[in-house]
Amino acid sequence: MRIRSLLNKDREKIKDILSATDMFTDEEINVAMELIDEFLEKGEASGYEIYTAVNEDDESIGYICFGKRPLTIATYDIYWIAVDPCYQGNGIGKSLIKFTEQKIKEKGGMLILVETSSQEKYQRTISFYNACGYTEVARIRDFYKPTDDLIIFAKYI
């Protein structure tokens, strides 16, 4: 497994991965694809950086999207991370996070934020962020809908 910048040829595979996880609604997948299209068209000028983990055949098996938070000096957001279910549990997600943290550090970043839902299906996601050293710093009750909170995690690097 290696990590490289997202290419046009990866677009449909990433969409397939997002669908295969059974974590995201069609609307959420459409938003993820909008960010991908923006990045593929404009590169880093889009405000996003997107990297993909690839297998030995150079096929995407996961990806991560992040960017500098507007109006801040050294704060970054991780917007999306997903790993093909066939490859989950093999450290791909952690590798993508560590890679991203290093990239952000190289750019002078000091704080990384990531948001998720409190729905039961996101408990593995919450555990994943905790295992990667992220701490819950805020929770907005009923943010997405009644009983579905927004959870914000942070990590200083």
From TrEMBL:
<dbReference type="InterPro" id="IPR000182">
    <property type="entry name" value="GNAT_dom"/>
</dbReference>
<protein>
    <submittedName>
        <fullName>Aminoglycoside 6'-N-acetyltransferase I</fullName>
    </submittedName>
</protein>
<dbReference type="InterPro" id="IPR016181">
    <property type="entry name" value="Acyl_CoA_acyltransferase"/>
</dbReference>
<dbReference type="Pfam" id="PF13508">
    <property type="entry name" value="Acetyltransf_7"/>
</dbReference>
<keyword id="KW-0808">Transferase</keyword>
<feature type="domain" description="N-acetyltransferase">
    <location>
        <begin position="1"/>
        <end position="157"/>
    </location>
</feature>
<dbReference type="GO" id="GO:0016747">
    <property type="term" value="F:acyltransferase activity, transferring groups other than amino-acyl groups"/>
</dbReference>
